Amino acid sequence: MKFGFVKVLVYIACLAGVAVAQEGCTDVRPGFGFFSPSCSYRKDRGDCKDLIAQGYCLETCGGCKQEPEPITTAEEVLSAVEETASEVEETEDPLTEAERETMSPEEKKKQEEIYREQLLDQVTMIEEDDGDVEVLPELVMPEETTATLAPVPEVEAQPKLPIKCSSTVLKDLKNDLNLTTAYKAALALNLTDVLERNDIIYTFFVPVDAAWEAGAESLGLTVEELFEKPAVLAKIFFTGIIPDMILDEDALDLTETMQSQSGETLAFTYDTADGVYRVSVGPDTMATIVAAEKYVGCNYMIHMIDTLLA
Question: At what angle do helices 74-85 and 105-123 cross, to 10 degrees?
Answer without folding.
Answer: 110
